[in-house]
Amino acid sequence: MESVKSLVIGYGNSLRSDDGIGACVAKVVNNWNLPQVRSLCEYQLTPELAAELAQVDLAIFVDACQTADKNAVELLPIKPSNAIEFKSHFSNPEALLSLTQALFGNCPRAWLVIVPGTNFELGDRLSPMAKLGIEQALKRIRGLLEENTRAELICTKSV
Predict the structure, then answer these.
(1) Which of 99, 111, 7, 105 is CA-nearest to residue 56?
(2) How many distinct structural domains can be found in the chain?
(3) Domain limits for position 124
(4) Which residues of 3-22 are buried (b: 16+ CB within 10 A; e: fewer)?
(5) Once rounded to an integer, what is the mean pLDDT over residues 3-27?
(6) Distance CA 103, CA 13 (A)
(7) pLDDT, mean of residues 49-60
(8) Strands 74-78, 109-117: parallel, antiparallel or unpaired by DSSP?
(9) Is residue 1 part of a domain?
């Protein structure tokens, strides 16, 4: 069994319509059955995820955002925050990366994929904007995963 090199974490509440974007993306990535890639659906970011993050080279966080002025998916590189806050859950991936660094002495390169949504009411249906955003996000995520695989191959060959 190959070790996991990349971790995709989609988070949000799938019972709040577009807030379920992260979970939807994570499920699709899981269905790709890519070697060395693990995908998780989470309601929120919890401290337990730090142990998983410490074992990978690349982490991709996927979340929805309610927006009226942005229609495009954002892809942002992220780093651990300066402050370490120990909580039962985290509101942002930077705090979770900070905990990972503090507990395990390292953390992966990380990206945040933000997908716009318009409907965050109770329900399980995604808006048309969310569906388009999911398609864009999946393309961006596939690119990041392929880039990570190429980098791994280059490092392996040069050793």
Answers:
(1) 7
(2) 1
(3) 6-158
(4) ebbbbbbbbbbbebbbbbbb
(5) 95
(6) 28
(7) 96
(8) antiparallel
(9) no
- pLDDT greater than 60 at residue 13: yes
99-153 pLDDT, tens digit per residue, is 999 999 999 999 999 999 999 999 999 999 999 999 999 999 999 999 887 766 5
- φ, ψ at 32 (rounded to 5°): -70, -20
Q: What is the pTM of this model?
A: 0.90
In whole angstroms, what is the distance from residue 38 CA to residue 6 CA?
Answer: 6
* Lateral strand order in the sheet of 58-66: 37-42, 6-11, 58-66, 109-117, 74-78
The domain that holds 30 is classified in CATH as 3.40.50.1450
Q: How far is the C-alpha of 52 from the C-alpha of 149, rounded, in Å?
A: 19
Amino acid identity for residue 89 in this structure: H
Indicate the SS3 state at residue 45: strand
